[in-house]
Amino acid sequence: QVHLVESGGGLVQPGGSLRLSCQASGFGTEPYGIGWFRQAPGKEREGVACISDEGIFYEYYVKGRFSISRDKRKNTVYLQMNSLKSEDTAIYYCAGAVGRGCSATTDIVYRFWGQGTQVTVSS
Questions:
Q1: What one-character DSSP code corresponds to residue 105?
Q2: How many CB atoms lie within 10 A of CB 1?
Q3: How many other CB atoms are there within 10 angstroms of residue 81's CB atom?
C-alpha cells in the first residue's frame, strides 16, 4: 500500500521561504515519480513541479523560485519555495506514479495522493 505524507506547510510573509516534504512509503523497489500540485480556494488544481528518473520539471509560474529535490535513502521529496507570493497560497499536494517518468502539468498520470498541506502567504 502506497502512502504519501506531506509536511512543512504554514504561514509565511511575502518574499519568505518554506520547504515542503513528501514522505513516500510502499513503492518497494519500483522506480517512481513524485509531483507537487496545489489548489487555491475557488480554483482548479494546478501542477507545480515533478521529479523522476527522467528528470526535473517545473511549471513556468514557479520556475526560478521553487526547487524540487529528493533523498532516495529517506524516500522523501522536497519542495523548496523561495520568494513566495500571495498567489502561491494554496493547499499543496504530492502525488506518486510508478515508473520512471512524471508530469508537472497533468495529474492524470498519478495514482497516489497525499492529504495535502496548507501554505498561506500573507503579511
A1: S
A2: 5
A3: 27
Total residue length of the chain: 123
CB atoms within 10 A of CB 119: 22
**12, 26, 75 from 83: Cα distances, Å:** 10, 34, 27
Q: What is the pLDDT along the chain (123 residues), one digit of tens a residue?
A: 999 999 999 999 999 999 999 999 999 999 999 999 999 999 999 999 999 999 999 999 999 999 999 999 999 999 999 999 999 999 999 999 999 999 999 999 999 999 999 999 999
CA distances from 97 to 25, 61, 82, 114 (A): 12, 23, 26, 12
**Residue 4 · residue 22 · CB < 8 Å:** yes
* Cell numbers that stand for 58 in this block: 517545473
